[in-house]
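> forwarded from #structure-qc
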């Protein structure tokens, strides 16, 4: 929360690298914390409470002892599982055998959407986002699969279109010509009759609520394309 400065040793100049002003603090996402009495025994704040208390009191010896107790309990539990042949199955993490790394099962890499996302919170170890149309994980597996399938279908259609256009184009033709088929960079027009986004016409009812958002994106893309065409001409 403090200022960060860059000190140039050669000339002694100091530059402000980061300044968390009151305006910056107001833009932060609200932090939601699970009450201590509602936490389970293995949640970090409760599990490490004795270590934390010792550190806050400046008692490093006590903190080291409490840490050792926790680690010994974990080692003993792991030893018992090995002896009993019990496989440890994490609830929230998966192992990537390719990179030999652990990843959070519900990780969400989608950028924050200020027009739709209100607040992010944790429930039962799962990060969720409160959206304007309700509370749900940021991107459900169903929605992801559905949209990915439609995108793949749209790409296949565009590829077939390019092949047809290439076969009809004379080899010595040096100028751009009009075509009834859209170019790879273009986006198909919206149909006023059915109000559906072509290339995504078979989205399921569960994903229908995203249609207005797609239309807004589509309109913005068309506007950019028209500007690009004007610049190109």
């Amino acid at each position: 929360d403090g200022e960060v400065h860059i000190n140039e040793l050669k000339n002694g100049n100091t530059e402000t690298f980061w300044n968390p002003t009151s305006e910056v603090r107001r833009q932060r996402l609200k932090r939601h914390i699970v009450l201590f009495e509602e936490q389970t025994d293995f949640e970090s704040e409760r599990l490490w409470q004795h270590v934390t208390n010792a550190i806050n009191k400046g008692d490093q010896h006590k903190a080291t002892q409490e840490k050792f107790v926790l680690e010994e309990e974990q080692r003993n539990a792991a030893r018992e599982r090995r002896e009993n042949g019990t496989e440890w199955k994490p609830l929230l993490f998966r192992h990537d055998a390719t990179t030999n790394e652990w990843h959070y099962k519900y990780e969400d890499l989608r950028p924050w959407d200020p027009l739709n996302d209100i607040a992010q919170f944790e429930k039962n170890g799962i990060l969720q986002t409160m959206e304007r149309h309700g509370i749900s994980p940021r991107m459900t597996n169903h929605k992801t699969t559905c949209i990915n399938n439609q995108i793949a279908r749209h790409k296949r259609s565009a590829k077939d279109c390019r092949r047809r256009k290439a076969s009809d184009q004379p080899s010595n033709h040096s100028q751009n010509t009009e075509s009834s088929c859209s170019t790879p960079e273009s986006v198909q027009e919206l149909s006023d009759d059915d109000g559906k986004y072509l290339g995504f016409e078979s989205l399921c009812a569960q994903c229908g609520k995203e249609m207005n958002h797609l239309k807004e994106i589509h309109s913005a893309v068309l506007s950019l394309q028209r500007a690009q065409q004007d610049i190109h001409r």
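QC bot note: The radius of gyration is 28 Å. The chain is about 40% helix and 15% strand.
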